[in-house]
Amino acid sequence: MANHPTRIVSLQPSATVILAELGCLNRVVACTKYCRDVVPGIRDSGKRIVADSWTANREQILAAKPDFVIASVPYQLEAVADILKAGVRFLGLAPHTLQEIYVDISTIAGMMGYADRGDAVVAAMQEEIENVRETVRAAGRPCLRVFCEEWGKPLIASQGWVAELVEAAGGVFVGEPGQQTTPEQIRDANPDVLIAAWCGAGDRVPLEKIVVQRGWHQLPAVLNSQIFCIPDEYLNTPAPTLTQGLYALAAALHPDLFSPSPGIRRIGDIPPTS
Q: What tens digit of pLDDT does each residue of 128-139 get?
């Protein structure tokens, strides 16, 4: 294992998820507090907690004596420069599509010396996505117009990989993935289903409030109570956990075909208190 990293600092939850799927969590010596939210094995591990990619602190990172640091765009260029000057290998992730996520998984797996495991993880994701797609196709359901947002103020549509998952679940993604939009533009698009997966909000997006504030009372999604909050880590973490988001989307669009997904909340449901 001399040529493969053994002391990894992960500044991105998706990287930590990928490392866990590859069976390399024992090599992670430091990660972010957000990693604890998506990787149960981190919570009581005693691993050092450091700032994330955007607020990266070079002293924190180098104090962990890493031989490999994984971050995601955007990240602190000054911190990266110091990491590289210290002779530490650095990988910056910036995926926009499922294919790019598969490449990231394969890249990390190769660096860990587990290329075959990476191939297996990617294949498992692809199989689950195709299974959902085929279930919807076989049922002959019409496509539903779906708006999925990753942030509320400003209003930002979810990323490209979410648009692909929406399509696999039998929907048509409304808007430009990853781009800022307006309540008026979404109202004109007349979506059948609204999905809120705000970064850092978990499952606590105020669904009733945003409908009122945006004047969305007459949208088909609102009239039919097809408004859902999906935990942000299901859709905003570009890693194998996206399959959880896929099944949450599929259950929202076709509840008679897919079992209820843990964590998904429909408008009118009592929001969590913690």
A: 999 999 999 999
